[in-house]
Amino acid sequence: MLGICRGRRKFLAASLTVLFVPAITWIYLFAGNFEDGKPVSLSPLESQPHSPRYMASSQRERENLEVRMREVEEENRVLRKQLSLAQSRSPSHHRGNHSKTYSMEEGTGDSESLRAGIVAGNSSECGQQPAVEKCETIHVAIVCAGYNASRDVVTLVKSVLFHRRNPLHFHLIADAIAKQILATLFQTWMVPAVRIDFYDADELKSEVSWIPNKHYSGIYGLMKLVLTKTLPSNLERVIVLDTDITFATDIAELWAVFHKFKGQQVLGLVENQSDWYLGNLWKNHRPWPALGRGYNTGVILLLLDKLRKMKWEQMWRLTAERELMSMLSTSLADQDIFNAVIKQNPFLVYQLPCFWNVQLSDHTRSEQCYRDVSDLKVIHWNSPKKLRVKNKHVEFFRNLYLTFLEYDGNLLRRELFGCPSEADVNSENLQKQLSELDEDDLCYEFRRERFTVHRTHLYFLHYEYEPASDNTDVTLVAQLSMDRLQMLEAICKHWEGPISLALYLSDAEAQQFLRYAQGSEVLMSRHNVGYHIVYKEGQFYPVNLLRNVAMKHISTPYMFLSDIDFLPMYGLYEYLRKSIIQLDLANTKKALIVPAFETLRYRLSFPKSKAELLSMLDMGTLFTFRYHVWTKGHAPTNFAKWRTATTPYRVEWEADFEPYVVVRKDCPEYDRRFVGFGWNKVAHIMELDAQEYEFTVLPNAYMIHMPHAPSFDITKFRSNKQYRICLKTLKEEFQQDMSRHYGFAALKYLTAENNS
Q1: Mean pLDDT across the stretch 185-208?
Q2: Region labeled Disordered — which residues (predicted)?
Q3: Which value, in Å, is the radius of gyration of the alpha carbons in the chain?
Q4: CB contact at 8 A, 572 and 494
Q5: What pLDDT is stored for residue 752 in this prediction?
Q6: What is the fold, at CATH topology level, of the domain defined by 138-355?
Q7: Which residue has the higher pLDDT, 602 or 158?
């Protein structure tokens, strides 16, 4: 709006000037014959046309008049030109939602102009605005490695997607960990008009590993130097971003700045806003060479085609080799080398206005880059302190960052109308499956949930575990929502082995979980727990999808399929590993049953042995699980036999059997059609039986269910008749599918169901 007002004022001023300047000129010239407002009287000698004084005076006046006329004509010419330009540009100030042109602030080529720009703030210039076509693809490159950086990338991408109106192509230079996390995330995010390509960062290590680097980013902090070699040879330009960037505007505005590059300018950078490269931060501070304050590489515009022609690879290598002879190592990773190259070749850089990289590290001049909230373009958290950095307006910046951090990513699945999207096989298959459903079916929502694609962020926290070399290792698998978070510490205390958890959370809840986990000494001391966030969508709790996600991402050959409300007995991890060897689980199809018990007490002195548990069972402190509500679920375990058993014993499958079992990792997945409450485990155990798994009860193992408030889904099951009808329908359809898949052997499930 400010740009519009200024444009109108300039247009009006130019118009008035052209109209009144000629009149003012002649008044001025006429007034030249007056003195103090009165006509100047000429002596009779001066009035005579042929007198010497008259002729000399007339000649001077004609010369003065001609000079002044030429000046006035030149001023008019300039004003007419400005008026013409103002008229041709004025429509661009009235862009609507369908405009193809984005305003673009002037960059500068020198620090003196930058200082003038800082004073002027973020006001739009009246220069010609290069167009960014509506469907032009914007290319963005990001280097990402590890678990924490993957979380940062998501926040950065959210801020870009929130403002964008163009197709995006992300080029992610990622290590194996980040690739696994982000590939799954974007595949399940399914954002229209967004393409992702990965480049193996581990293969690039040899290109930069010879450079000693003291920066906390490590070897990955040097990889922006090799983008000309890494990215496709037909890619001409790219915006390069650090992972700790937050966008506050449409990235197309930054993309448009490429049109401002002239001559040999191939790098678009913002001046460094700290005194680092001035070398006066402390005594004996000796930074790498830089032009003035140097440049920050958190945001870079790269003209790749020109850089390749200039032999950029050779240029930066020679510079780095020369400087390392005296500097020995880099302090700010790639930024030091970029600045050393620019110091020798200042013509390479196009200096961006500083609001394209407002740097929030300590002791920066970032506050000079903006006068108002609307001035902000890009915020850069380039301090190891991140959100705890010192800045007069840090609270505002932090809130802006947290807004994107907790923003529902599902809302960013917006179509770009008018822009053709690339064919996506997964999306097309999903649409086909959904179109085959009958929306008038009373169980439509249940059926639809089976095909819902939930955005999934694997390994939300750091994970580090190497399975035992004896091939007996087992992972505890469970799923939970926010209301069961309090169980995590207790489970970690009871189970020392690896754990794989799928958490069903919103974006905001995921951040609450992160703060909870980071504040827990118990959880932070465990690196063998994989936390996989499945983001909320739809009205049902996708319990079996969550189990499948947790099952799929284990690194051990065996898994213990549990629930988050159960505490395993102390020492169960080691006991299961011994049982796996004893019962030859590697070469047989067995499902080892861990008997389940429950307590109604919130405070329980957990039994440390089977004898202690039996005593508590006799005293009524413990019960067999769900014996008073759902006896059939665990009756086949045969608790009477278990009381005295000293060796494993086999039990047969019965209708509605749903024990907790240890199986090989190649066991079948849970059936996704069952959501919320009811039959989710029963169907899985039925399929294990159909695949001829042998159910074996472990005599010295047990787990105890801890009390909690009823879940929302069980409340719906009990109160909603249609819910129960749909569950019954899904059960019948599952049994029919079993019969078709397993043939005659599956008929017993129909018979057992009818007799139960």
Answers
A1: 94
A2: 43-62, 83-109
A3: 36
A4: yes
A5: 63
A6: Spore Coat Polysaccharide Biosynthesis Protein SpsA; Chain A (3.90.550)
A7: 158
Tell me whether the CATH fold assigned to 138-355 matches the one assigned to 456-751: yes
Mean pLDDT score of the chain, rounded to an integer?
82
pLDDT at 318: 95
Q: What is the pLDDT of residues 453-497, one digit of tens each?
A: 999 999 999 999 999 889 999 999 999 999 999 999 999 999 999
- Cα-based distances in Å from 602 to 565, 616, 617: 12, 15, 16
How many of the other CB atoms lie within 10 Å of CB of 689?
22
Tokens at 641, concatenated: 């036999």
Backbone angles phi, psi at 223, to 5 degrees: -75, -15
Degrees (nearest 5) of the Cα angle 617, 620, 621?
A: 80
Q: Is the Cα dihedral 376, 377, 382, 387 positive or negative?
A: positive
Domain boundaries, the chain: 138-355, 456-751
Dist. CA 141–CA 115, nearest whole Å? 29
Residue 475's nearest CA partner among 560, 553, 552, 544 is 560
DSSP 383: S
Concatenate the DSSP letters of all residues of 559-584 into one string.
Answer: EEE--TTEEEPTTHHHHHHHHHHHTT
Q: Which amino acid is at 627?
A: Y
pLDDT average, residue stretch 367-373: 74
| 735 CB neighbour count, 10 Å cutoff | 18
- Give the Cα separation of 266 and 269 in Å (integer): 10
CA distance 427 to 192: 10
**CATH superfamily of this structure's domain 456-751:** Spore Coat Polysaccharide Biosynthesis Protein SpsA; Chain A (3.90.550.10)
What are the tokens at 165? 């109106």
Rounded Cα distance between 646 and 700, Å, is 7
pLDDT band at 450 (very low <50, low <70, confident <90, very high): confident
Pairwise pLDDT comparison (16 vs 605), residue with the higher score = 605
Closest CA to 114 of 310, 313, 368, 339: 368
CA–CA distance, 303 with 258 (Å, rounded to integer): 8
Q: CA–CA separation, 183 vs 173, rounded Å?
A: 12
What tokens were used for 740? Answer: 């078709």
210 to each of 227, 328, 477, 577, how far by Cα in Å? 17, 11, 42, 44
- Cα angle 290, 295, 296 (rounded to 5 degrees) comes to 135
Spatial strand order in the sheet of 237-241: 194-200, 168-174, 138-144, 237-241, 295-303, 267-271, 349-352
pLDDT of residue 500: 98
What is the Cα–Cα distance from 609 to 616, expressed in whole angstroms? 11
Report the relative pairing of strands 474-481 and 623-624 from DSSP bridges: unpaired
Structure confidence at residue 698 (pLDDT): 98
Is pLDDT larger for residue 391 or for residue 468? 468
The C-alpha atoms of residue 418 and residue 420 are separated, in whole angstroms, by 7
What are 305-358's pLDDT values in tens digits? 999 999 999 999 999 999 889 889 888 889 999 999 999 999 999 999 989 998
**531: helix, strand or coil:** strand
Query: Where is average pLDDT lowest: 91-105, 492-506, 641-655?
Result: 91-105
In this predicted structure, the answer to whether residue 127 has a pLDDT above a threshold of 50 is: no
